[in-house]
Specification:
- The structure holds two protein chains of two kinds.
- Chain A has a single domain, classed as Orthogonal Bundle (MetI-like fold).
- In chain A, 72% of the residues lie in helices and 0% in strands.
- Chain A has helices at 9-34, 53-57, 67-98, 104-116, 119-132, 139-164, 168-176, 180-191, 193-209, 212-217, 226-229, 242-276.
- In chain A, helix 3 (67-98) packs across helix 9 and helix 7 packs across helix 8.
- Chain A is globular.
- Helices cover 26% and strands 35% of the residues of chain B.
- Chain B is built from nine helices and 20 strands.
- In chain B, helix 2 crosses helix 3 and helix 2 runs parallel beside helix 4 (137-149).
- The longest helix of chain B has 18 residues, at 167-184.
- Chain B is elongated, with a radius of gyration of 25 Å.
- The chains are: A mainly alpha, B alpha+beta.
- The interface between A and B is medium-sized, with 16 and 20 residues.
Chain lengths: 277, 365
């Protein structure tokens, strides 16, 4: 006897299709428009002659900068931020989970509270400070600021991850011949690799999409990341080349989508780890 | 082969928890030394201090008469088997066993030879390509032993290594572990809360309670001459029975008086006791379940009791009786048919009784 198809499932499906359509529509618009060489309005128009013309146009300067440069800038900034954030989270989590000291709990609570502050709140003070110190237009400074913004979040993930790994493995390794740090690096670190990958990719995505801090701290158009650069596609008199914006947006969204597929397995684990505490 | 010596070792955890209180003992070369006690008695902390995972608050630890108190674990040349075995989950069995050797920069061919040798000894040579999670509990246990053995450590430390195994396997591994230790003659310090394990494996046992070492002696002596009430009650299944009595001297007779009975002690024993505790003293009479005989008729120097419940165990039967308000267990070989509430008399060899001071809980004979 074959499985019967219950009619009651139809409304559920209809609802799901609606939800997916609702959320996917802007993305569909973006993809369709990116390949439409004649998109001069926001109209949803299936191109008769799809082409890569919009992508080629991105090789021509906008406000004196080739838009691809902004993508490259974003890659540099996001990779460096993710690297720094991961390294610092790792070190901090090691100390927080493998030693006990006064004020440990208060420290973690402070991190959580800092996490709740919106980027906009610290952007203006940072702008003033950075200008004073001559750090505007400085990638190092921007990366530091972005890392500081992301760290509380990644540190919480790292802390819960390392706490979940029994310290007995490290003790066994220490007796087997490792130093304390050696035991952590040789035994716990490999076990935490999925967690670290999650942290790296999350930090990358957050840095990649950060708009406020780079807008405040980077003044020269050629140094903008893509998130700020996209702003410049709006011409002086409201003239907008939607094809170009869509093409640029498409390229800009690819890393995020790739990252999502890579980490979705780990991400669930990481977040679940946070909840499980 | 090495010796291990603890000198006035005390461990205090903040804020003020005394986990180990002034431990002193010396483990001889090739000895199988067991730290026995209930959970929280400080036995694992003692072991961890010997391993170097905890630092003593006071006192010194010597291995081969070399002061190792301030040495990190890796420089002590000891191996440890953990309760959870702590096999590195991301390494195959082979790499788990090879790990301590690799850290010591032993040449590759030598590592290979040693790993295979020890794997063969523990009969895990067909599991070398597996990951720990693909192994059964007993197999993981063997891998943990192999990892501890492979570098021929000076001292073997074991923290309840059998407690995560099921009962049948535990009994098997117990015998195997003992044979292995005797064959390799490695000085071993073994922590357990299971007195059967301790009795069956140890050359000497240190019984601990509340951070203190109460007695250090071979198993037979621990069983026969417990120095405190705690030791008497902790070793043996079922545990030693305690019946409150009063020692009195009446008309040149030495008597142990309890609820509804009076036992006359031989003169020699009575005089000895009088010298120790005086003319009158509150004591606890300790008798092991296997040293009591049940009589259905009244006998001299017997304690009257009422049958409470009978537990048949196959080869033996545990008869629970009540002496006044005290429950007493008696081990009877084979079957024993008693109806509850039957009146019986308990007879015992006066040479096998123990007497403990009720206040200090120390043995007086």
């Amino acid at each position: 006897m074959g499985r019967r198809f219950p009619l009651s499932i139809i409304p559920v499906w209809a609802f799901l299709v609606f939800v997916i359509w609702y959320f996917a529509l802007p993305l569909v618009w973006m993809v369709v428009t990116a390949f439409n060489p004649n998109a001069y309005s926001v109209a949803f128009e299936i191109p008769k002659h799809p082409s890569l013309a919009n992508f080629l146009k991105l090789a021509k300067p906008v406000s004196g900068v080739v838009p691809y440069q902004w993508i490259v800038n974003s890659v540099i900034i996001s990779l460096a931020t993710a690297g720094l954030t991961t390294a610092v989270s790792l070190g901090a989590a090691f100390v927080l989970t493998r030693f006990s000291f006064r004020g440990q709990g208060a420290m973690l609570t402070a991190f959580v509270i800092f996490r709740l502050l919106p980027a906009l709140l610290i952007a203006l003070p940072l702008l003033i400070l950075f200008r004073m110190w001559g750090l505007l237009d400085n990638y190092g400074a921007l990366i530091l600021a972005l890392s500081a913004l992301i760290l509380p979040f990644t540190l919480m993930i790292a802390e819960s991850y390392f706490r979940a790994i029994p310290i007995t493995y490290e003790e066994a390794a220490m007796i087997d011949g490792c130093t304390k740090v050696g035991a952590f690096l040789r035994v716990t670190l490999p076990l935490a690799a999925p967690g670290l990958a999650t942290i790296f990719l999350l930090a990358f995505v957050i840095a990649w999409s950060q708009f406020v801090l780079p807008l405040f701290l980077i003044r020269t158009p050629s140094l903008f990341p893509a998130s700020v650069g996209i702003y410049f596609f709006y011409g002086q008199y409201g003239k907008v080349d939607y094809g170009k914006i869509a093409a640029f947006s498409l390229i800009y969204s690819i890393p995020v989508i790739v990252v999502y597929f890579v980490i979705q397995k780990y991400l669930r684990k990481g977040i679940a780890g946070l909840v499980a505490r | 082969m090495s010796t291990v010596r603890l000198e006035n070792v005390t461990k205090i955890f903040p804020p003020n928890v005394v986990a180990v209180n002034n431990a002193n003992f010396k483990v001889e070369k090739g000895e199988f030394f067991v730290l026995l006690g209930p959970s929280g008695c400080g036995k694992t902390t003692t072991l961890r201090m010997i391993a170097g995972l905890e630092r003593p608050t006071y006192g010194k630890i010597y291995i081969n008469e070399q002061d190792v108190t301030d040495l990190p674990p890796r420089l002590r040349d000891v191996a440890m088997v953990f309760q959870t075995w702590a096999l590195y989950p991301h390494m195959k069995v082979y790499d788990n066993i090879a790990f301590p050797l690799r850290l010591r920069k032993v040449p590759r061919s030598e590592i290979d030879r040693k790993v295979r040798e020890v794997a063969k000894l523990l009969r895990i040579d067909d599991l070398l390509d597996r990951y720990p999670k693909q192994l059964s509990g007993g197999q993981q246990q063997r891998v943990a032993l192999a990892r501890a053995l492979v570098r021929s450590p000076r001292v073997w430390l074991m923290d309840e290594p059998l407690s995560n195994l099921d009962a049948l396997l535990r009994v098997q591994m117990r015998a195997e572990l003992k044979r292995l230790q005797k064959e390799l003659k490695i000085t071993t310090i073994y922590v357990t809360h299971d007195q059967v394990e301790a009795m069956s494996m140890a050359d000497r046992i240190a019984v601990m309670n509340k951070g203190r070492i109460l007695q250090i002696a071979p198993p037979k002596e621990i069983y026969e001459k417990p120095r405190t009430k705690f030791v008497g009650g902790f070793v043996g299944t079922p545990p030693m029975n305690f019946i409150p009595v009063t020692f009195v001297v009446e008309n040149d007779k030495y008597l142990l008086k309890g609820e509804g009975f009076s036992i006359e002690l031989p003169k020699e024993l009575g005089e000895y006791l009088r010298e120790k505790v005086g003319d009158r003293a509150e004591l606890d009479l300790g008798v092991r379940p296997e040293h009591i005989r049940i009589s259905t008729s009244e006998e001299p120097n017997a304690i009257p009791a009422t049958v409470y419940i009978v537990e048949p165990l196959g080869t033996e039967t545990i008869v629970n009786v009540k002496v006044g308000e005290t429950l007493v267990k008696i081990k009877v070989i084979g079957e024993a048919l008693f109806e509850p509430s039957t009146r019986v008399w308990l007879v015992f060899d006066i040479n096998k009784i123990h007497l403990f001071d009720t206040k200090t809980e120390e043995a007086v004979i």
